[in-house]
Design the sequence.
């Protein structure tokens, strides 16, 4: 089987960290490079967290490029309240390897890469600043990537930064607006409507502990803060892990279902960062996005756990039925 090539643009971040581990261990994926954007944490910290993860999974060969340090127009507001001051649940772990970032800026790398290559998908797990800057430099970026998947936005589910806006689009609404308008490729939007169904529960953590390793210990450590945050603010026992679902959907497009629509992102006012999904075709505009609204959670946990635990699929399929699959963040 040929591996799917992907460049991951991210802002690690607890759930980004889980998505990176999942991607780097997945047998069907070839991670070409990782690009870092400011979001959950400032870019330099995002780079350090990414290097720590590469070291953990023994993939220091993968290049990391640092990109934007601030959103396009708005002041930068991190999500360190959600992910901890270090972005990894205040574990304050440090890389031992002294990995350095590549010299080129992430957006220049992306712009140049997609001048030649056409077989690589872009998986965006943070604000869309790097993507917008790369698209400004290379107008064919959208046509030349094989797929463009963005974790961000929301359709019927409420926001997580305001009543109506999700963090990645709210953090840099101008970048999100620019990408949806000018990408010339369908933005596959893995928003809160589907990611809120992916709740890592205490049962999942208990299950991970049955496979003791440095990796499962790391996951347990970094998610503790995220658990506390969700309990404090949302009375949810567990944590919503958004970013790994976007990766699962890249690997297996049947994991989520939705519909095509024209989508616009609000850049000012009370609804700043909201993704306005024209499901009823009021604006009479061509569709620029696919909005995911349904997810097969069992299928997600199956592939996620099989991959990160290096276990045969059959082992996980049997055990998974014992787990409380969570996923009932209903709104
Ligand atoms: C998104 O915002 C970040 O905090 C997470 O990493 C995820 O990408 C969810 O709104
Ligand atoms: Ca993220």
Sequence:
């Amino acid at each position: 089987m040929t591996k799917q090539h992907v460049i991951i643009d991210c802002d690690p971040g607890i759930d980004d960290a889980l998505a990176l581990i999942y991607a780097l261990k997945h047998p069907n994926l070839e991670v070409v490079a990782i690009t870092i954007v400011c979001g959950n944490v400032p870019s330099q910290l995002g780079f350090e967290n990414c290097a720590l993860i590469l070291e953990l999974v023994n993939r220091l060969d993968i290049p990391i490029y640092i990109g934007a340090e601030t959103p396009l127009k708005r002041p930068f507001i991190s999500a360190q309240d959600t992910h901890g001051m270090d972005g990894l649940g205040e574990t304050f772990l440090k890389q031992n390897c002294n990995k350095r970032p590549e010299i080129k800026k992430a957006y220049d790398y992306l712009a140049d890469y997609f001048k030649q290559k056409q077989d690589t998908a872009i998986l965006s797990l943070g604000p869309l600043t790097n993507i917008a800057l790369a698209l400004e430099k290379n107008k064919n970026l959208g046509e030349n990537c094989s797929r463009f998947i963005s974790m961000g936005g929301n359709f019927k589910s409420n926001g997580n930064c305001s009543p109506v806006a999700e963090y990645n689009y709210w953090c840099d609404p101008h970048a999100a607006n620019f990408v949806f308008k000018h990408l010339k490729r369908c933005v596959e939007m893995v928003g809160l409507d589907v990611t809120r169904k992916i709740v890592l529960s205490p049962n999942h953590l208990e299950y991970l502990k049955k496979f003791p390793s440095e990796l499962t210990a790391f996951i347990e450590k970094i998610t503790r803060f995220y658990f506390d945050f969700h309990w404090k603010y949302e009375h949810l026992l567990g944590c919503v892990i958004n970013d790994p679902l976007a990766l699962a959907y890249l690997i297996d497009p049947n994991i989520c279902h939705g519909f095509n629509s024209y989508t616009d992102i609000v850049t000012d006012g009370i609804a700043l960062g909201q993704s306005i999904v024209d499901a009823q075709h009021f604006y009479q505009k061509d569709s620029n996005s696919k909005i995911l609204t349904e997810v097969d959670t069992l299928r997600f946990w199956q592939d996620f756990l099989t991959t990160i635990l290096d276990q045969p699929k059959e082992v996980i399929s049997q055990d998974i039925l014992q787990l409380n699959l969570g996923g009932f963040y209903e709104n």
